[in-house]
Write a structure and sequence with these properties.
The protein is of the alpha/beta class and 233 residues long. It is built from ten helices and six strands. It has two domains: 140 residues, HAD superfamily/HAD-like (Rossmann fold, 3-Layer(aba) Sandwich); 77 residues, DNA polymerase, domain 1 (Orthogonal Bundle). A six-stranded parallel β-sheet has the order 3-2-1-4-5-6. Bound molecules: magnesium ion. The site of magnesium ion (MG) has 7 residues, from loops.
Length: 233
C-alpha cells in the first residue's frame, strides 16, 4: 500500500486533463473555412457546441450509436443555418483536425509526471480513434500514464459498467475503494464511477450546479487539489 489514500486514478481526458474546448474551436473554425463557409463566428461555434453536447448525451443514454451522433450533429447544425454541406465529409475533416492544438488544464501534465511511479494512473476516454490518435500523440500522454482506455477500441463507453469491467480486468487488482475516478462529466465519469463501485471526484472548475442524481465523493475546481484528496486532507 502506498502513502496515498488511493492506489489508482482513472483520469478523464477531454475537459479534465486537456482543454478540449480549444481543440474543438480550432478544428471547427479550420473546417468551416476549408469547406468554403467563411469565418465561423463565436455564436456559430457556440451553437454547434450546444448541438454536439445534446448528441453526446444521446450516446451516453444509449439512444444513438457513435456513428450516428458524429454525422447527425453536423446535419442538424447545417440544416439550422440552411448551409448545404456534406456532413459526413465535414465530420471526417473535423475529427482529423481535433487533437492538433493541445492545451493542458491547470498544470495537469506536471501532476501526471509527478505522480508517475507513485500511484497507478490510467486515462479512460470516450471519443473517436481519429481524434485520440492525434491528441494522445501530441499531448504525450502515453509517456506519463500506465494505460489508456479508449471507448471506441473497447466497444463500450462511460458510464456503462461493461466499459469499467473491461478496464478493471485489464489492470492489476486494487480494492475498489482505493480507486478514484476524476472527471468533469457527471453522466459519464461520475455515474460510471458509481456503476463501477469506485470513488468519484468531480472536476468542476466553473462551479456548475449539480443537478444529476449521482454520488460525488470529492469535488475540486483545480486539478492541483488532487493532492489534498490523495493525502487524505
Ligand atoms: Mg470530460
Amino acid at each position: 500500500m502506498n502513502k496515498y489514500k488511493f492506489d489508482a486514478i482513472f483520469w478523464d481526458i477531454d475537459d479534465t486533463l486537456l482543454d478540449f474546448e480549444s481543440e474543438e474551436n480550432y478544428s471547427f473554425k479550420k473546417c468551416f473555412s476549408m469547406f468554403g463557409l467563411g469565418e465561423a463566428s463565436e455564436d456559430l461555434v457556440e451553437s454547434y457546441k450546444q448541438i454536439n453536447k445534446k448528441y453526446w448525451s444521446f450516446l451516453s443514454l444509449g439512444e444513438m450509436t457513435k456513428e450516428e451522433i458524429l454525422v447527425e450533429r453536423f446535419n442538424e447544425f447545417f440544416k439550422k443555418y440552411n448551409m448545404h454541406v456534406d456532413s459526413k465529409a465535414f465530420n471526417y475533416a473535423y475529427l482529423t483536425n481535433l487533437g492538433i492544438k493541445i492545451r493542458f488544464n491547470d498544470n495537469s501534465y506536471a501532476i501526471l509526471k509527478d505522480l508517475k511511479n507513485k500511484i497507478k494512473q490510467y486515462a479512460l476516454t470516450d471519443g473517436t480513434m481519429l481524434h485520440k490518435k492525434n491528441q494522445l500523440k501530441n499531448a504525450k500522454l502515453y509517456e506519463v500514464l500506465d494505460g489508456i482506455f479508449i471507448s471506441e477500441e473497447i466497444g463500450s463507453c462511460k458510464p456503462n459498467k461493461d466499459f469499467f469491467d473491461y478496464v478493471l480486468n485489464s489492470i492489476p487488482k486494487f480494492d475498489l475503494d482505493r480507486i478514484l475516478i476524476v472527471g468533469d462529466g457527471l453522466k459519464t465519469d461520475i455515474l460510471g464511477g458509481n456503476n463501477a463501485g469506485i470513488k468519484t471526484c468531480y472536476f468542476n472548475p466553473r462551479h456548475k450546479k449539480v443537478n444529476e442524481n449521482v454520488k460525488i465523493d470529492y469535488q475540486i475546481d483545480s486539478l492541483n487539489k488532487i493532492y489534498d484528496i490523495l493525502n487524505g486532507n
